[in-house]
Predict the 3D structure of the following.
Amino acid sequence: MKFATKVIHAGVHPDPTTGAVMTPIYQTSTYAQAAPGDHKGYEYARTQNPTRSVLEANLAALENGSHAICFGSGLAAMDAVLKLLESGDEVVATNDLYGGSYRLVNTIYKQYGLKGRFVPMYDADNFEQYIGPETKLIWIETPTNPMLHIIDIAAICEAAKKKGVLVCVDNTFASPYLQTPLDLGADIVLHSATKYLGGHSDTVHGALIVKDQELADRFYFIQNASGAVPGPMDCFLVLRGIKTLHLRVERACENAGKIARFLLSHPKVANVYYPGHEDHPGHEIAKKQMRNFGGMVSFDLKNDNLEDANKILSNTNLFTLAESLGGVESLIGHPSSMTHASIPREERLKVGLTDSLIRLSVGVEDVDDLIADLKAALDGE
Ligand SMILES: *Cc1c(COP(=O)(O)O)cnc(C)c1O
């Protein structure tokens, strides 16, 4: 099945009891048993829920995996991955990653003796040096947030495989429409389904996708034992959002490419970060591992200060100033004070995350209107 067919059909069947074409929201906490232990495969809704099962089958197909395991948020999914590790183990992660992911490793899991090491991964040839005897997990995010660096997934996985270390790729920014890391050697794919998968900014949800039974069983155990499960309504919303994933992401990419070109030409803009540009250092790898270059664009200002950035951030009309990304509507954000505020300023500056850096999540509106909106805000009209 090709991708556009999978988003609509994979794992989805008319409801066996009524024939309902759309997967029902099974809003129940428990299931009747005919005799003790005599049930239809569903006992208690933390453990199994039919709406969730359909979404899990669909997600597994989209990422070319064997199993998907859903959670109440992207961070709850990450939490489940970190629970594979033990005190003294080390996770090596990209140094330019989602602020909440950094926080989870460096605060909560630090208390339990887990070590986090945040390293540059863009230079895959020199990556092996970072894998030590205690390294048990490699955490990749690509394109990275918010600098939109590209990490060579296949090359990092090859280095990891040599040393028998698990690799998890946070595929939230690309979505499975643009990139399928399991095909490139990753063991685990993570999604904040809150973003492109849900696609309508109306739910918080997370998922892991794997390609082997053993890891799947460990994650099903954690899903049930720790209990960070999504509700059936949220599973329904993500399942519905996925049906148009390919259409939304395709349009977002097209719009983002045009907006990135517009920003390059604006006199107040210093740097534009977009992997679709030929002079972007990760452009060739992006072309190799992605179908298109994504809907995210970051840029900063020649006057690198918060005041000038603030003027733009509060003067757009169509771009809403808000955290998050991946919805049909365009959002504008300020990583250093919003999504990445939990990362110390010196750390932020090291990766180029300046005070004036602005991140756009480009939606599916008419691109001429979006460019006019940005132009007015930049010109200070
Ligand atoms: C939003 C996000 C997360 C966290 O997901 P939640 O659903 O908000 O918990 C993790 N990784 C990336 C790249 C994200 O954008």
User: Anything to note?
Assistant: Residues 175 and 311 are 31 Å apart (CA to CA).
